[in-house]
Design a protein that fits this description.
Blueprint (H helix, E strand, L loop, with lengths): L8 E4 L9 E8 L3 E9 L4 H6 L3 E5 L3 E3 L5
Antiparallel strand pairs: 1-2, 1-5, 2-3, 3-4
């Protein structure tokens, strides 16, 4: 598994109340998890993302690197 870095664009797997996966930028790295600033998400998750202030903490294994959208 590649090492995560602040600023990496990643895809987070759905968890908890999320109905779909989401994408965003890593803001902070913890020992076993990362804080993701959510930038792209399904409209069904709009209210939840708003309640979370567009941020989510996910396990490092659940944050898959993707290329940023232009």
């Amino acid at each position: 598994m590649a090492e995560h870095k602040v600023g990496d664009y990643v895809k987070g797997k759905k968890f908890g109340s999320f109905e779909h996966d989401f994408e965003g930028e890593i803001e902070k790295i913890y020992e076993n998890s990362v804080l993701i600033h959510i930038l792209s998400y399904d409209d069904e998750d709009r209210i939840l993302v708003g309640e979370l202030n567009n941020r989510a903490i996910v396990r490092k294994e659940d944050a898959e690197p993707v290329k940023a959208k232009a």
